[in-house]
Design a protein that fits this description.
heterodimer; A: 545 residues; alpha/beta; Rossmann fold; 6-stranded mixed beta sheet; 18 helices; 32% helix; disordered N terminus; B: 314 residues; mainly alpha; 13 helices; 71% helix; 0% strand
């Protein structure tokens, strides 16, 4: 490996701080640069998806782009390929002569013309068309009355022979397997003679065997001069198949490292990060159990939204952090506690009382406060007023209605008090709730939940997409509820958040929940990736029973 | 029973079927083009009215029959462009926009007609397309009257079936159109314009729809009067599903409906004294619903139909 990072003496500790990683650049001398991203930034509303990102790629190189979900990997690649127009920054691509040329951004056509191809995580294929038509689509002039498919077919067959990526060209894509569809996606790019190939989580949908074959093929192609960027959060394949690793966290590039110098421990640290804002947090003694799950299973449509024999106990004055990579059963757990998903097996007790039928109404009655993951969609009714949204979970209570009629004045007075106490800012309590910003919608939901002093609070991704101030406000409120005696289930993909707030950590992976038994972020990080066993021998129904 | 058999064997019945089917062929092809690209065009009923009125008026103003055909197509394309702009780049509800276009196009056509001809009691007539008289072929038994004594407008419809089929299946444009109706991302990722393809398809499809209307005033009849489209546009929307978005099947569906309609007219005269005529009038529609129920189960919906696509929102 010619590329070695400039590493200070104490690399692991140094890697933990994003502030100090700025000068961690890989020196490239012997390889020619084919792609250079500089200062790329992109905001979506109040969320900063990419924050001034620089990235280089060299000929024949396999660069792995790593980061947790929401770190901004896909956004970055979508800007490179022209799906998104960056707010700031430039991209330069080497032309066939090796000269760096500025790329016109925001047009996939321009990216393709510059020799950049992208394999999308959600395949961009027309299922009603054959593989051949999907591959050729867009490379023919639309005004032509006849098609020359023979030449196209010959070229594709030659590519298939060279790379080993073989598909049946005349079958409609809708009838191909997922692995075959992915090969069609790659062939699409190769047919356009791309020199740079971007693969967005290429192995997410593949079996291990298919993944190995894919990387063998990629290896063969890079020896012919293809340069590859692939997005992943699977550490093992990153270490096995890349030459260099760039890590994104919260939209920022936090470091680069030559794969030869990396191991899973170092990468996990870089991905998870350590710059946690301090939240004052008092020690509390756990109280009586508020939530007990015993062997609870949820059968979802796929493994991603299922739970397998989950057992846990959450006590009063406790925050239980559920750590895991998105899509490992978090939605099933959240659905269960919200009352939206019925279990297929197991017992649920809230405050010591069995929940016979899991419905949203029963859960609210049992004292569950819900902070949903998608606050715009599930947390509020956007077309209704702020005041109405604040009482929407207790329309039948005496303070809100009498004999089936709403007490408009009381509702409004309640909303004005809550808006003051929870600092909900916006066009007023009579305005439609969708007019509020994301942070203020979350404050509205917090006000609604906490005012009922629930004994159990489900906080699902409570700070995702919020700015630092709003996020720390949410954290403060959660800690406050903990002090007043609630038990809180905190589901988050942000391990920093879990470690700073949670008393205990449970890792969820493939629908199985295991108590971490440690606060070591590396161990937890590995467990999240399904590549380590818990720190200490696991007991079922772990907790302070 | 024997009467029905006699009807079915007569050349005049089949000639009438094809004649009645002609506007539907245009309409169903137009709707098919729009929907293949992913856009439902419920403006069809109003675009039929516009085509009927504009085609007739162009001839009445002295532009000639083919000038009328062209004028109708342009007028249809204009309303198609309106619908396309509302539903494609702006992504508004295709149902609402389509129904709006139908109401707008219908009213504007009636308004224009009334403004141009404020005080006529009987609608002015034009000299419509005449039946072709092809030597030898027109004199063939059975086939002659059925196929070769139709007007040039009917032949244009049959030609359009071939053209639409060819474009969809044999040209790069058609393949792109099929792709954009299935998954717009596939088109975008290959560097083609989703908006361009969809707007183009809706405009072209709407032009075809207007020709269906123009046939009514320029070939089937010789004047324009209110209410003459009489739901033919809506029938086309159903026929597209019946046809599973295939031009060949669309032709078959249109002919089937034409045959039902021709049959009911003849049955009315046969047994009209016993059974109320409304029963026969309803017949083709009832049979269409039955055929649709059977066919719709297997219908191959364009996957992206009704789904707006926005650039930069993947």
């Amino acid at each position: 490996m010619p590329c070695r990072p400039v590493r200070p003496p104490d690399a692991p500790a140094f890697l933990l701080s994003s502030k100090m990683t700025v000068d961690l650049t890989v020196t490239q001398t012997t390889q020619t640069k084919v792609l250079s991203l500089s200062g790329l930034s992109k905001r979506f509303g109040s969320v900063i998806a990419n924050d001034v990102i620089d990235l280089d790629l060299h000929q024949g190189e396999v660069l792995a782009l790593l980061g947790e979900n929401g770190a901004g990997k896909t956004t970055l690649m979508n800007m490179l390929f022209g799906h998104y127009l960056p707010d700031a920054g430039t991209v330069e691509v080497a032309d066939e002569g090796g000269q760096m040329q500025a790329l016109s951004l925001g047009h996939p056509q321009a990216a393709l013309a510059a020799g950049i191809g992208m394999v999308h995580q959600h395949f961009a294929l027309a299922e009603n068309l054959s593989a051949l038509n999907n591959i050729v689509l867009g490379s023919e002039r639309l005004g032509r009355w006849r098609r020359d498919l023979r030449a196209a077919r010959a070229k594709i067959e030659q590519i298939m022979q060279r790379t080993g990526l073989v598909v049946t060209l005349d079958t409609p894509v809708g009838r191909l397997s997922v692995g075959e569809r992915q090969r069609v996606e790659i062939l699409k790019a190769l047919y356009r003679d791309v020199r740079i190939l971007v693969l967005d989580e290429p192995t997410a949908v593949l079996t291990p065997q298919e993944a190995d074959t894919l990387f063998d093929n990629i290896g063969a192609m890079t020896r012919e001069g293809l340069s590859v960027i692939f997005i992943s959060h699977k550490l093992r394949e990153v270490l096995a198949f890349s030459q260099r690793i760039a890590v994104l966290r919260h939209g920022k590039k936090v470091g680069e490292i030559a794969t030869a110098d990396a191991d899973e421990r170092i990468i996990a640290r870089m991905m998870v990060g350590a710059d946690t804002p301090e939240t004052p947090r008092t020690d509390m003694t756990a109280g009586a159990p508020v939530l007990e799950l015993e062997g609870v299973s949820v059968t979802g449509r796929s493994k991603r939204d299922s739970l397998v024999g989950a057992s846990l106990t959450l006590n009063a004055h406790e925050i239980l952090g559920i750590a895991g990579v998105s899509g490992n059963g978090q939605s099933a757990l959240a659905g269960l506690i919200s009352g939206l998903t019925k279990p297929s097996a197991g017992t649920i007790r809230i405050g010591g009382a069995d929940i016979a039928t899991v419905t949203p109404a029963n859960m609210i009655k049992a004292g569950v406060g819900r902070i949903p993951e998608d606050r715009h969609h599930d947390g509020i009714v956007g077309a209704m007023s702020v005041a109405e949204n604040m009482v929407i979970e207790r329309l039948n209570s005496a303070e809100v209605s009498r004999a089936g009629f709403l007490k408009k004045d009381a509702i409004k007075a309640n909303a004005e008090t809550l808006s003051r106490n929870y600092d909900v800012r916006g066009p007023g309590v009579d305005a439609r709730a969708r007019l509020l910003s994301g942070g203020n919608i979350q404050k509205l939901i917090l006000a609604r939940v906490f005012e009922q002093t629930p004994q159990l609070i489900l906080a699902n991704q409570p700070t995702r997409g919020l700015d630092m101030l709003a996020a720390s406000e949410v954290a403060r409120r959660l800690l406050e509820a903990r002090e007043t005696g609630a038990g809180i289930v905190l589901i988050s993909e942000d391990l920093d958040e879990i470690l700073s707030l949670a008393d205990r950590v449970v890792v969820i992976h493939d629908g199985e929940m295991v108590e971490a038994g440690t606060r070591d972020r590396e161990v937890i990080g590995l467990m999240m990736a399904g590549e380590a066993t818990p720190h200490e021998p696991q007991q079922s129904g772990a907790g302070t029973k | 029973m024997l009467d029905i058999l006699n009807i079915l064997l007569s050349d005049s019945f089949w000639a009438a079927s094809l004649r009645i089917a002609t506007p539907l062929i245009f309409g169903v092809l137009g709707a098919l083009l729009c929907e293949k690209s992913g856009v439902l065009n419920l403006g069809i009923e109003g675009i039929f009215v516009t085509g009927a009125m504009v085609g007739w008026m162009a001839v009445w103003l002295g532009l000639g029959l083919w000038g009328g055909v062209l004028a109708a197509a342009v007028a249809g394309a204009a309303f198609g462009l309106l619908h396309a702009i509302l539903t494609v780049p702006l992504g508004l509800s295709q149902h609402v926009s389509g129904l709006g276009v139908t109401m707008f196009a219908t009213s504007l056509s009636y308004f224009t007609y009334r403004t141009a001809l404020p005080a006529v009691s009987s609608p002015p007539k034009i000299e419509p397309f005449r039946a072709l008289d092809i030597p030898v072929l027109s004199d063939l038994p059975f086939l002659g009257p059925v196929l070769f004594q139709q007007t040039a407008f009917t032949w244009l419809a049959l030609l359009m079936v071939l053209l639409v089929w060819y474009v969809l299946n044999r040209t790069p444009l058609g393949v792109a159109l099929q792709a954009v109706g299935d998954n717009p991302d596939s088109v975008d990722a290959q560097g083609l314009s989703v908006y361009g393809l969809r707007i183009g398809a809706v405009v072209a499809g709407s032009a075809l729809m207007a020709l269906g209307g123009a046939f009514l005033t320029m070939s089937a009849f010789d004047s324009f009067f209110f209410g003459m489209v009489n739901g033919r546009g809506w029938i086309c929307i159903a026929l597209v599903i019946f046809a599973s978005w295939r031009p060949g099947k669309a032709l078959f569906g249109a002919l089937l409906f034409g045959a039902f309609d021709a049959l009911q007219v003849r049955l009315q005269t046969e047994v009209g004294a016993v059974v109320p005529s409304q029963v026969f009038l309803a017949g083709p529609y009832v049979l269409s619903i039955v055929a649709l129920v059977i066919a719709a189960r297997r219908a191959d919906y364009p996957r992206a139909l009704l789904t707006p696509w926005f650039k930069g929102q993947r």
